[in-house]
Backbone:
C-alpha cells in the first residue's frame, strides 16, 4: 500500500503541485494517425507535450510521466504525489475540452503490459489520476475506474487501495489485461521486434457492451509512432463495436527539441 494521496485540493490550490512552467506550455494538439498494418482506418489523435526521452531535462518535458510509470517502483512519497496531482490537472483540463468535442464519449485507457496484480499501487498511478480527473468532468462515460471511500476489506483483484481511506475500483475498465506481455518500450529497445498484431484482442478482455455504437476516447500516457501498441488497441475497440475511436496521449515522443514548430 502506498501513502500517496490521489488529490488534495488544499495543496492543489496552494500551488504545490505542478511546475508552473510546464502548465504554461500546456496545449492540446490534433493530428491524424494513418492506417497501417495494425490500424484499418485513419484516427484522430490529440496530445499535450512532446516527450523527448526519459533523461530529458527540458523544462517543457513532461517528466511527471516518468514518475507515474514508475518502472523501478519508487517509494518517494512526495515525488509520486506531485506527479499524480500534476497528471490529474493536465488530464482534467484536456478531458474538459474533449468532452465538448466528443460529448457522451466513453473514456478508457490502454492497459499496462502485465496483468494488474503484477504491479504495486504506486505503479498504477497514471490510471488512478485518469479516474480522478474523470470524476470532475461531466459529459463523459467512465470506462477506467471508480474512486470512492475505502469500504470494508474484501479480496477483489480489481481494487487498488490507498492509505488515505480511498480505493480505486477497476471493475468498470473497458480494457483489462488478462495475460501479461513484454513491456513495449523494453521490447522495442532490446530489438525484440514489433508488437504482434492483434495482441490487444489476444491478451485483453474488452467490454464490448460498454462501447457498442459509441464514440470512445482511448487514453495512453506516451505515444511512440513505431511501437504500434496504441494502433492495435484502437483497432481492437473498433472490432468490439465502437462507432468511432479518438486517441489521446499526454506525451508524444520526439527525436529532438523543435521549439519553433512544436510550440
Residues:
Amino acid at each position: 500500500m502506498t501513502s500517496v494521496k490521489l488529490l488534495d485540493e488544499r495543496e492543489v490550490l496552494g500551488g504545490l503541485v505542478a511546475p508552473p512552467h510546464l502548465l504554461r506550455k500546456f496545449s492540446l494538439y490534433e493530428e491524424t494517425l494513418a492506417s497501417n498494418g495494425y490500424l484499418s482506418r485513419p484516427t484522430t489523435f490529440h496530445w499535450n507535450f512532446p516527450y523527448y526521452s526519459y533523461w530529458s531535462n527540458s523544462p517543457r518535458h513532461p517528466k511527471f510521466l516518468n514518475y507515474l510509470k514508475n518502472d523501478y517502483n519508487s517509494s518517494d512519497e512526495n515525488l509520486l504525489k506531485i506527479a499524480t496531482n500534476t497528471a490529474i490537472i493536465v488530464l482534467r483540463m484536456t478531458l474538459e475540452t474533449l468532452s465538448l468535442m466528443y460529448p457522451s464519449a466513453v473514456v478508457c485507457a490502454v492497459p499496462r503490459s502485465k496483468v494488474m496484480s503484477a504491479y504495486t499501487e504506486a505503479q498504477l498511478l497514471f490510471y488512478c489520476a485518469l479516474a480522478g480527473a474523470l470524476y470532475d468532468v461531466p459529459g463523459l462515460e467512465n470506462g477506467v475506474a471508480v474512486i470512492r471511500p475505502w469500504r470494508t476489506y474484501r479480496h477483489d483483484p480489481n481494487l487498488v487501495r490507498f492509505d488515505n481511506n480511498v480505493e480505486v475500483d477497476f471493475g468498470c475498465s473497458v480494457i483489462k489485461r488478462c495475460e501479461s506481455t513484454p513491456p513495449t518500450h523494453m521490447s522495442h529497445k532490446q530489438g525484440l521486434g514489433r508488437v504482434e498484431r492483434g495482441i490487444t484482442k489476444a491478451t485483453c478482455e474488452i467490454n464490448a457492451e460498454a462501447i457498442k455504437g459509441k464514440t470512445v476516447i482511448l487514453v495512453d500516457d506516451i505515444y511512440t509512432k513505431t511501437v504500434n501498441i496504441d494502433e492495435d488497441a484502437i483497432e481492437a475497440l473498433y472490432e468490439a463495436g465502437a462507432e468511432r475511436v479518438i486517441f489521446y496521449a499526454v506525451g508524444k515522443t520526439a527525436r529532438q527539441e523543435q521549439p519553433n514548430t512544436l510550440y
Q: What stands out?
A: Residues 1-17, 187-192, 259-263 have pLDDT under 50 and may be disordered. The radius of gyration is 17 Å.
